[in-house]
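Sat 14:20. Reprocessing the chain from the morning session after the first attempt stalled halfway. Input below, unchanged.
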Amino acid sequence: MFLALIHPNVVSVNIWPETARSLRGGLGASQLPVDLAGLLLEIDRGNAYILAEKWVEKTYHHGDLKAALITTALEMIAAHEEHLIGFRELARRLDVSRTAPYRHFASVEDLLATVVEQGYESFIQRLQEVSAHSEWDAPKRFLELGICYVNFALDHPSHYRLMFERRFFVNADYPEIKTLSKKAFHLLKATVQATLPLDTPDSEIKRLSQLAWACVHGMARLFIDGQWQAMKQRQDFIRKSCEQLLRLTGD
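Finished this time. Tokens:
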């Protein structure tokens, strides 16, 4: 008699009952982790006992697989290996079964969207920390916010590149990313508005905010993409550039 294991993404696989008992200390097949089916599909089923033992060791002794998947994806982006990112390659690098990533993410796009959301959450937190300095006047907060923006990109270049990829903004599949992006822009807009006269039209506030965004984003990309790699005293350049940007608000 065989026991059947079912994985939502594959067909059923049959193994002997004694294999199931050996794997999980006598538990029935219904209590076995479903990832086993994916492994047994890929390799000779005649070696199910040995393969299953190998699978259990690889899966359960890894640690925090979700965090490891995110970290490895970021490392691949930093190494310009975006085209290689896939669950098969991630699983190979982390030495887990090919189906293990599905326990945490529905797809590679789901994984990357989570990376982007984490990036925006960290980004917003950094901007909020600057905005919270009530002892600073409005121009000082504007200046420091611009510097903070560029330095976030310098500190987290892989996150930053992914956060602004077109695929996350051209359709309706990623509403949380769009919400977080708008939240970040509204922090910038509120900081710009505080430097302007009270009767400044909203259209002008928005225009100046978009100009400020374009400037700091452009600086950030030129730094992290390597065009300004040889620049000396980059922090001095960033501060002076943001000071000039502040003058555009008419302070």
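Residues 108-131 form the longest helix (24 residues).
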